[in-house]
Amino acid sequence: MKQKILSLIIILMAGAQPLFPFEWEEDTLTKEVDFSEEVDDVVQDGDAWCVYASMEAVDGTEQCTHCFNYIHNFLVGKDYNVYGSSYIPDDKYKAAMEMFNNNSNSTCTSKETFSKFGVAGGDNRFFESEGYNNVSGTTFAKQLMNPNEYISSPVLLQKADGEFGHCVVFVRSQYYNKDWYDRSSSITIMDPSDGHIHDISWDDLMSYDAVYSK
Asked: Would the keyword Signal turn up in this protein's UniProt record (predicted)?
């Protein structure tokens, strides 16, 4: 009787084994870019200060100082409201510029006054004046995928949205199995609208219109 039971157990165990052994396919990390240690979490201090905050996250210079640089280099001397009166009423724009001319530190001491003084039209000249170079989207994509390509510093990403735009900081990417749609592939950014890290898709990344590298 014992022998019959033992034989039955052996048969059941043998039947539990798969007919064809299943092999898990290992993920292959094709390329990783990681600036996690070089990008700070920064919340923008003004409604339109995403560019200044993104720069602060990368270079450590206070966003109010970047705002000063923009106004000083690109707005002072102009006799019209570059933002349009529907966004900043002309009287408020004029009052803010008078304050700026009388107090060069006002972008830091009166941030609310300059809250909407962002980079008008995503002016490339401002990025260049702050030491950021424009990089083509094609080049950036290759740098994220090709192990032989090198990215030397964190990257700012800018997207137009109607009359306005938004700027974020690229933080990290992991490119697995030469496929951005692979479940293991990932892309993260720091969004100054809330100062948090967010995961985005490859399609989201490619929707940004301009790329700037320090």
From this structure: yes
